Amino acid sequence: MPTPKVKFNETAAKGEILEIKTMIDHDMESGQRKDKDGKLIPRKIVNKFICTLNGKELFHAEMHGAVSANPATNFFITATESGTMEFKWFDDDGSVYAISRQLTVN
Amino acid sequence: MKTSLIALAALFVALAGSAAQADPPFDPKDPKMAPYISGDKRSGYTFAEPETRAMQDDEFLNPASLWVEKGEALWTKPDGKANRSCSSCHGKAEDNMKGVGSVYPKYDIHAGTVINLEQRINMCREKHMAATPWKYESEPLLAMTTFVKMQSRGMPVQVQIDGPAVSYFENGRRFYYERRGMNDLACKHCHEDNWGNHVRTELLSQGMTNGFPTYRLKWQKLGSLHRRLAGCNEEIRAEPYPLGSREYVDLELYLAWRAQGLQVETPSVRK
Amino acid sequence: MGTSLPRAVLALALTVAVVGAADAAQRKKPADPSIWEPTRRAPLTEVKGDPVRGRVIVIKKGSCLTCHVMPIPEEADHGDIGPPLATVGSRYTPAELRMRVVDPKVLNPDTIMPSFYKSTLNRVAKGLEGTTFLEAQEVEDVVAYLSTLK
Amino acid sequence: MSQDVNSDLSRRGVLLGMGAGAAALALMPSVAHATREEANDAFAKLTGGAKPQAGKVTLKLPEIAENGNTVPFTVVVDNPMTEANYVKAIHVMAEGNPAPGVVSYFLQPTGKAEVYGRMRLAKTQDVRAVAVLSDGSAWEGKKEVKVTIGGCGG
């Protein structure tokens, strides 16, 4: 079971630009590799990642088979309001891996 | 005169097909490189591209951190019939595992042989936790090995090669210098005689082991030294030995001695 | 050098191809063991080496570019472990080239260069035991190609 | 406790001998590579038809990717991130891969227009990034990445 992780400055000054670092362990099976018998291994990747603050989207990514295993996605936001940051990764098999953090803006 | 020589050289290169690429920048006098050099020994870090070094240096972005966190969680998780965790006996890893990873492989009096850190962890599981040993190269064993070894980060590799370890060490040394496989190569042909040269574009390193387990860009995974050794053997079309085999543990001891004095870098990131 | 010898070699090569790797150990040795003589200078087969085929073998099966810079501009990134081979054909006769390809350890026991026609190697991967890096005719083709590099 | 896991992946490379580009083969075997036209078409779909202009977009990638399986990259767009004028999307494409699309990022008017990720590259090629702004215009940056041909271990 993949276990995502995120890191950012959880207590920030209003207007501060925060770098949000994220990573999740996942094989990102591209769908283009063959097994020992020459058969294509079916694609199984995390195809989407989304970050929200208090339910409002801040950022999302749509990934394809060319994203490396254990995808890392870093981006920036401006600290404007306190609240719950939610991070979700969507697997081809329907699984959703989620993690959340509190952001405090002073 | 000089320019015509250069032109001639350029022409030669063009005619001869392109030669190997520019190497990653490395200045032995750069203070930032000091932790990765000991005498004439150079960690694989010094042979890596700057972007690979940066990936290792960033504690969050180093992808091996995903395994480190799993190892940290396992450290305090009771397991086996004894319902004990690592921390039941050893307390805080940060305090009590310091200097443990830098001295393996090591002769173990209870095992009556030289064992590596993976085997030591499994011995603990069997003897003290009454738990089943983890499979070699399994996620929990890699995670725990990495978590324990990284407690020695920055400490020099320091293995014992005398006393009861002598015959194992000699065995490992023999392996290092013995040709094998269809390509008929010994470890030493690439990593002792030709480090700094290129096979196609690939820059050969000194084959130092102080960063293992390592996150390999190629594997897109954390992996053990033994997996790397087996991979090396396969590349030269030699029959690899099983992971955890006597042969590879002995070679691991010899390689650790070659890396003696370099700092433990676990978990490193390598190509 | 009798003509029966190269035939035996060809037969052997065919046997290798047909029987495959599984029972490599049981394969018959060639009739004349001198074919395996590392200092052998005579051609390994009676079919004259083909430099065009040799060039392909140099790039693909022989993996020569792993270590040598060669006048093969369509392939990028030649290695620099061994000497450049752009003029190797003017430095050595075909016989001398053959010896170096068959088993360079005759000249330098410590060389990193593989022995391309030696079947008694240590701990070869399962399925490849008893076989050689290149087949006899392939060695001849490579030698023919190298001889053109002047 | 012994076990051979060193895998299926490298076997094929091994049989081809040293220096056969084992990594690329293992990653994306025998699939036709995308063409520049396919990449252009794919970009056109993503940009809603706007023709990307050169500029604003900087792709930071290694000069030499040590292994094509994991190539770190950063895209920086020189543009504000205000409600009135911001970067709505950044599309990353590797036209020498079997399928050109790598990843698309969708941004809001917050922070700054910079993203980091890691991608797989089948071979030496141009990597392209197109930024679509809130005014509908599209901007492109490009960088050639040399993917190492491995000798031992790709």
From TrEMBL, chain A:
Among InterPro entries, the record links this protein to:
Ig-like_fold, Ig_E-set, SoxZ, SoxZ_dom
Highest taxon in the source lineage:
Bacteria
Annotated Sulphur oxidation protein SoxZ domain residues: 9-97
Which Pfam families would you find in this protein's record?
Answer: SoxZ
What is the name listed in the Swiss-Prot or TrEMBL entry for this protein? Thiosulfate oxidation carrier complex protein SoxZ
TrEMBL record, chain B:
Coiled coil stretches, renumbered: none
Binding annotation for heme c 2:
187, 190-191, 232
Q: Which GO terms describe its cellular component?
A: cytochrome complex; periplasmic space
Instruction: Give a yes or no for keyword Transmembrane helix in this entry.
Output: no
In its UniProt record, which GO terms are filed under biological process?
sulfur oxidation
Where primarily located? periplasm
Question: Where do the catalytic residues lie?
Answer: 232
Enzyme's top EC category: transferase
| Signal listed as a keyword | yes
The residues that hold substrate are 228
Designated name of the protein:
SoxAX cytochrome complex subunit A
Organism equals Paramagnetospirillum kuznetsovii
Gene label: soxA
Automatic annotation (TrEMBL), chain D:
Q: Which Pfam families match?
A: SoxY
Domain (Ig-like SoxY): residue spans on this chain: 45-152
Keyword Signal listed: yes
Coiled coil spans: none
Keywords from the named record: Signal
> Which region is the signal sequence?
1-34
What is this protein identified as? Thiosulfate oxidation carrier protein SoxY
Source species of the chain = Paramagnetospirillum kuznetsovii
